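pasting Mucoidy inhibitor MuiA family protein for the record, 544 residues
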Amino acid sequence: MSRDQKFLANDIPINGVTVFADRAEIRRVFDVTLIEGLNTVVVENVSQYVDSDSIRVDGKGSATIHEVKFKSEFVSEAEKDTPKVKALTKNLKELQAKRDDLEDELTLNRKKLHSLDDIIKNLGQVSLTGKDSSLITFNESVEQNLENLYEYHAKNTVELNSKIRTVQQDYNQVDEEIRSLETEISGLKIADNQKRSIYITLETYMKQTNAEIDLTYQVRNASWTPSYDIRVTTSNNNSLKLYYFGNIKQNCGEDWKDVDVMLSTIQPQCGTKLPQLGTMSVQFPAGSVDYQDQNVRIVSRKIEDIKCCPKTENNVLSTTFTVPQKKTIYSENSELKVTIVALELDPVLHFDCVPRRNFGVFLTASAINTSSYPLLAGMASVYVDSSFSAKIPLPSVYSGERFDCPLGIDPSIKVQYRPVQKYLQKSGMLNNYTMTMYEQKVTVKNGKAEEGVLVTLIDHLPKSADEKIKVKLYAPEIKPVQPYTGIGTNDDLKQLKAPEAGARLNDYHNLEWTVVLNPLEEKEYSIKYGVEIPPAEVVEYVEE
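structre below
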């Protein structure tokens, strides 16, 4: 025959909480006294959001754990309130009555104070001489009456304000006691006619011994999300400070009071941004097409026009952050913001423009995450030289990876994107191929009076999707340029470098042309290329 020991979950202190993206793991450690033979330890009134498959029990002492099981039992309305709950409910009603009395006293004193103020306010409309007149006849008697009235008003105003402050303090204290008692009753009460209990069966061969039970289980209705403050300084030496926050909230039915909190990344996390260009291909269309403009049909499949299904970002990050100092988080879905770490990084600032999409010149800060902390995807508030710039989504960034932080448009740099010039010419003696020439002129003006700038212009250069289609770039000349997206390996991290002057093709086969402008300088740049196709063929331009 086994001996049963029962504990209320709310009476067992929480030793630690590990918060995941969509749940939390609760750890409770408590001591039990065991006698020879089988012993059953029952933890009652566990949170209704408990995941029964997550329950684990470890222990210390001279005993063996034989079985751990979870039970959810129906209870009637009469059984829901234990004697302890009934006693606490009685205390709650007494406190609520006391709070009502204090509220009445506050209302009465405020009305008295308001009445005193009304007397002074309406004094000019009252005849102190007893005559039917709106004017006061000043004499010694009236003057004395006024002095007496002002003295009475001042004395009673001070007394009433003092009473109001005292009663308000008492009211706040009682209100806090009521809130604490309601939370305690909520933790003891059975919320939905289901009593959830954890049964732990242990065996010992000693006549009597003490053992330590280490109980962990996971609950839903708890989560944390990352957020960031990114502060960039552009004067003197460029700097980037990144503040990494964890935003915790829970409503799992039990308060976490004065506990150690850890944040785990084991669960995947599901205006001012520089426009992106896809790869522009020139190809023969499938099937017949309508002629639009001299053997050319342009098809633009914009990403924003495609209805996408929700996508989950695959993330193999598995890191646990320990929150400094113990925290108290109430079960009320309010959010607690804690600082995980503050990082100082060395950024590279660069100007980029995609004039085909937007004439604005975007300032971007690029940096490498040189810390050991993985940055999870989350919203970041960006500040430039102490002024708020934008709120942006920051993607996941591993240790050693580069990330870009858009800082907004610099209005002092102007770009003009002129209409493309296009003309046809024949090529080839025998095949009589058709060559379509395209010339795109871009004017850039640096409005800064004391600062030269590097600006990277990004535009399409069509990529042939068929060997019969020939694309040739005439201007600018493509030069080998060292990429500036270096990512370090081990402890030897390569430094980020600003883009070098010159033209190159990026991974999307788009032209990236970095140009240099002196203070107040204006220059015109020409992008020129030709597309050669066989006679009587039609091509289309598709951006993917």
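Helices lie at 77-80, 83-121, 140-188.
The chain is about 15% helix and 45% strand.
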